[in-house]
Amino acid sequence: MEERRYRSASGVPIALRCLQHSASCRELAVRCPRLQLRSLSAVTSAVWLAAYGLFVLSENSMVLSAAIFFSLIGLIIYLHFVKIDQESLLVIGSLGIQVTSSYASGKESTTFIEMGRVKDVVINEAIHMQKVIYYLCILLQDPGDPQGVSEVVPLFQSSKPRLDCLIEVYKSCQEILEQTKTAPQSN
Q1: Could you tell me which InterPro entries the record lists for this protein (predicted)?
Q2: What does the DSSP 8-state code read for residue 32?
Q3: What is the domain count for the chain?
Q4: Can you tell me whether residue 141 is helix, strand or coil?
Q5: Which residues are CB-contacts of 116 (< 8 A; sequence separation ≥ 6)?
Q6: DSSP state of 38
């Protein structure tokens, strides 16, 4: 197991873990920083202080109850649907590619793409707010047109690794895809 430190497009430290299970099976996981208790406490305190200020002005206890209720519901929604701790890519040459997102609450979201549908894995670029950002994506082959692309599946959308990290993941994916393309020809 090999873990390397990188930065995201926004400058946040991330870690790339590479596991090679076999010659044609590799797992690449990008870990985002965990939720910091300091930032969570700051946001919660700000909401509750604002609610207390409104309570003092209005003398209505429902303001405090609503602030507590909405901050707890907001936290649960954030942890279960928004905050992703890890995104992983499992590339199995003979089967396909599995993309998994692990949320802070423990929930996992998994998508599997059969290798027969994968046309290529590429690094693409986009312009976002006067800035060029790079992202890794899977090009899915169009069933009607073997030269065409039917869909583009972006990877690592939450962690947004910088180009140096994406190049390492790209090279690893291309090694396995190249093995898959040459394997039928050699038999």
Answers
A1: PIG-H, PIGH-H_dom
A2: P
A3: 1
A4: strand
A5: 96, 141
A6: H
Exposed/middle/buried for 88, CB within 10 Å: 0-12, 13-18, 19+?
A: buried
- Give CA separation, 8 vs 98, 102, 103, 164, 166, in Å: 22, 17, 18, 10, 10
Q: What is the average per-residue pLDDT within 168-178?
A: 94
**What pTM does this model have?**
0.82
Residue 91, token pair as written in the block:
């590339």
Establish if 67 belongs to a structural domain. no
**26, pLDDT greater than 50:** yes
- Helix segments in 78-130, DSSP class H: none
CB atoms within 10 A of CB 16: 22
39 pLDDT more than 90: no
Do 83 and 104 touch, CB atoms closer than 8 A?
yes
- For residue 148, what are the domain limits? 2-35+83-182
- What's the CATH number where 27 sits? 2.30.29
For 136, the token pair is: 């890794």
52 is a domain residue: no
Give yes or no for residue 113 having a pLDDT over 90: yes
Report how far residue 73's alpha carbon sits from residue 88's, in angstroms, rounded to the nearest whole number: 28
Q: How much is the average pLDDT of 2-13?
A: 92
